[in-house]
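Hi R.,

Here's the chain you asked about this morning:
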Amino acid sequence: MEGKVFEDSMAAIEVVRHSRGIRVILRGRIQAYVCPHLRCLLKRLILNHRHIEIDLTDCQYGVIAIWGEMLRTVETGKDKIFLSLHNPNPQIRQILALSGVGKAIPLSFGKKSEAPPSPANKSRST
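And here is the predicted structure, written out as tokens:
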């Protein structure tokens, strides 16, 4: 299950493999109507993958409901999976702190070039 899973004029969800597992890339303004798509995707991913990284580098906005989906994924997977959030912007970090998600799910930061390669990153750097 790789490639674009959801896309419209406001948001996109893409799945790519990387050396440690799966990267889910969220782009644009993630609104509440995207939650069912993300919920289904995460449920499928935790069945077959141990490490899931949510890349927020190109995510400008995310409603609290989306972070609730991620918390449910962590609870469902418990000791089976490792879920992390990569490069949340300052507004998203504030939402994560207020909602408590930032304490439950590890955050990582870095330039896109430091992240494991993905088709999106490769095409931008060449």
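One quick note: The beta strands are 3-7, 11-18, 21-30, 51-55, 59-62, 82-86, 107-108.

Cheers,
M.
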